[in-house]
Amino acid sequence: MAKIRMANPIVEMDGDEMTRIIWKLIKDELLLPFVDLNTEYYDLGLQRRDETLDRITHEAGNAIKKHGVGVKCATITPNAQRMTEYNLKEMWKSPNGTIRSILDGTVFRAPILIDSIKPVVKNWKKPITIARHAYGDVYKATEHRVTEKGKAELLFTGESGTQWRETVYDFECPGVIQGMFNKDSSIKSFAHACFKYAIATKQSLWFSTKDTISKKYDHTFKELFQQIYETEYKAKFEELGLEYFYTLIDDAVARVIRSEGGYIWACKNYDGDVMSDMVSTAFGSLAMMTSVLVSPDGNFEYEAAHGTVTKHYYKYLKGEETSTNPMATIYAWSGALRKRGEMDNNKELTDFADKLEKACIDTLNAGIMTKDLVGLVEEGNPQAVNTLTFIKEIRKRLEKTV
Ligand code: NAP
Ligand code: MG
Question: pTM of whole model > 0.70?
Answer without folding.
Answer: yes
